[in-house]
Design a protein that fits this description.
With 348 residues, this protein is mostly helical. Helix content is 79%, strand content 0%. It contains 16 helices and no strands. The protein has helices at 23-40, 43-59, 63-80, 83-99, 103-120, 123-140, 143-160, 163-179, 183-199, 203-219, 223-240, 243-259, 263-279, 283-299, 304-321, 324-337.
């Protein structure tokens, strides 16, 4: 039913790159192609090369390089008069904006990319742009607004037999079910995603699916199996240099250990994940790692007033980013730890 996974963001002479190629390999070949395009004067080849540079740099956490490259890709695509290539460049910029925590800008760029793709007749670019919009809404916790779009994109991906996009949609819908408390449904969808990704040789999608399965299993108390799955996913993340995915893997390991009452080990995992997120300037991941760190410290006897102040600061930070579900997580942490918000605490 599904063919082998492919990476449509690797375009032109780079389209033979495997979806499982390490990001350093992608970056090296893209830079080489960019130099070749400069010699031949091909604007479209330059657009393709800069797009691959942007995506490899973004996934490696090199946000300044990614910003320069996607804009260069857009300028070259516009010079070539190729709206499809323009759409891919703006999609990359929107995805980078989401990674950096600017969700309003991400929505704007991704909507622009979807329009360019539709006018340019690039069905895959349109699908990826709409998927980006759906994922941005999901991250914000606006499930009602984006649930139908996720389902629509899943149906389209299944119809076309696109394994990678099917896996993405399944994982997104599964995450919404998990966050809404429908654990059985979430687990079944994460497991289907893992099966499809494995069959299609989509190592990245498989690693993310294993993380989702581990999350749900740990909620059921299956700590050992959850940690095994995270270790398996970590091997893939390290091999492919998936810096962001690796940091989220480490944050999830902290979650699993925390749920098992292993607070000192959880604190260590959260601390490491926080450093990784800060190094790549990813505020969402950093905030979630901080939340885990605060909770772990509290369980280990950290000062109560300091814990309350840290939770207040996290609540404000997540509000600025626009992460509704994550703010609810802070409120749940207050209830769990018996800490009141600043406005509800008596004055000193």
């Amino acid at each position: 039913m599904y063919g082998k996974a492919f990476a449509p963001e690797y375009r032109g002479s780079l389209e033979d790159l495997s979806v499982n190629a390490s990001l350093e390999e992608v970056l090296a070949k893209a830079v080489e192609q960019r130099q070749q395009a400069e010699l031949t004067g091909s604007a479209l080849d330059s657009a393709h090369a800069e797009l691959a540079v942007a995506e490899a740099s973004r996934r490696l956490g090199r946000v300044a390089e990614a910003e320069r490259a996607w804009k260069a890709s857009y300028r070259a695509a516009r010079e070539a008069g190729d709206q499809g290539a323009m759409a891919w460049a703006v999609w990359s910029g929107g995805t980078l904006a989401r990674q950096r925590g600017d969700l309003a800008l991400a929505r704007r760029w991704l909507a622009t990319a979807a329009g360019l793709a539709e006018r340019g007749g690039d069905v895959v670019a349109r699908g990826y742009s709409l998927a980006g919009l759906a994922e941005t809404g999901r991250i914000q916790g606006d499930y009602e607004a984006v649930g139908a779009l996720h389902e629509q994109l899943l149906a389209e991906a299944r119809r076309r037999g696109e394994a990678r996009h099917t896996v993405w949609a399944l994982e997104g819908i599964a995450q919404m079910h998990r966050n809404s408390g429908s654990y059985d449904t979430a687990l079944a969808m994460f497991e289907e995603a893992a099966e499809i990704a494995g069959g299609a040789d989509d190592a990245r999608g498989h690693a993310w699916a294993l993380r989702g399965i581990a999350d749900v299993l740990s909620l059921r108390g299956e700590t050992g199996r959850a940690l095994e799955l995270l270790s398996e996913a970590e091997v893939t993340c390290r091999r492919m240099k998936l810096v962001s995915a690796l940091a989220y893997n480490h944050k999830m390991r902290g979650n699993v250990l925390f749920r098992a009452g292993r607070y000192a080990e959880a604190e260590e995992c959260y601390r490491g994940a926080l450093a990784e997120f800060e190094e790549m300037a990813e505020p969402r991941g950093a905030a979630l790692a901080r939340l885990g760190l605060v909770k772990s410290r509290a369980r280990l006897g950290h000062d109560r007033e300091a814990t309350a102040a840290e939770l207040d600061d996290l609540h404000r930070t997540l509000g600025r980013i626009g992460l509704l579900h994550a703010r609810q997580m802070v409120e749940a942490a207050r209830a769990e730890l018996g800490v009141a918000p600043a406005g509800d605490r008596p004055a000193a």
